[in-house]
Amino acid sequence: MGGTVIGSAMIAVMGMIDTLRSVVRLRELELDPVERRLARAASVADLRRLARRRLPRGVFDYIDGAAEDERSLHRNSSSFSRFGFRPRVLRDVAEVDSSTTVLGRTVPYPLLLSPTGFGRIADSQGELAVARAAARAAVPFSLSTLATRSLDEVAAVSDGPKWFQVYVWKDRDMVVEMLERAARLDYEAIIVTVDTAAWGRRERDIRRGFTLPPQIGLETFIDGARHPSWTLDFLRADPITFPVIADATAASQGGRPSDGGDPITLAEFMDEQFDRSLTWEDLAWFRDHWDGPIVVKGIQTVEDAVLAADHGIDAVALSNHGGRQLDDAPAPIELVGPVADAVGERTEIYCDGGVRRGSDVVKAVALGATAAMTGRSYFYALGAGGERGVDHVLALFEEGIRRTMALGGCRTVADIGPDLVEWRS
Is 321 a known active-site residue? Predict the structure, then answer.
């Protein structure tokens, strides 16, 4: 009798095992720590959390922080939730085409990578990693004047669309050298940043005593021990410099001065060289020295967007510098509709600030933007997983854009119109 019961139990157990085998697949063990991290990252918010754990706190706060009380930073992202979707159904979205045209070039989806400075503080490859990932995705990558890799280095690793962001220095010969070098290396457009008449007060950096390069003290060793992978990567790499500035000063002054070439002298150099007298009339100077498209970044009012269009600017980037300059500046997404109404098709419109999901990109386009721009998203990804992290975040954006289009009833980008969204107070 007992044997019969045991036998029945064994049969039942074997049956359960067979059932589990038919519906469950054991996940293959991933030995690569970067791949393990990225496999858990379903969103930009997840990449931010991973970067926060991997990076020293001062480095993370530099990437993550903004001016003063950081209200603009938070409003940039939260304002997207004020716009709800009005999805249409039965629209035949079996095949969704997310491609569009930006400054005459076809791109696979309406997303551009904003310029960010100091890329190598997140990963030793810095801008090279971002440029390679952007080239694979065929999306435009913008190199900052304050990049930690040179125009030449980026051009050598990327055959994708490249733009160059330029600050305006008092030494215009240096600016000319930058523009001529960018043209020789086939950078397709320049971005003139215009929201830096003064530097924003970034209080997280002040509280942390964060400097470039990070100063070596007891707290540095303690923080480094808590973040060994970043610390080893940082220590094995060459010292951080700012070669775009160093190359330009060398060419314009006939030598290689130290000013601007290394982090220690950069702040002094920028305070001395920033041209705060820049006006709308100076844009004609750029047109005289650059044959390609010009984007003006830092537009924060309808009036200035209209002035940019009046001056023949090819595109305006509605941006408050990621909330890093003037706290309580307007959220870019809230400006897109009014600016589109005011300028029509006279200039392209980019929404730069708070873009974290593919659905954010679709909302910006629905309101009238040509494309959206993102900087922090890929900076988090770079800190979380290096170059593979940037590949990962770009894949998240592409999938999110296409999924949102399908769920909204839009087969092509041309189908994304103002009737897709509504303001929700």
Answer: yes
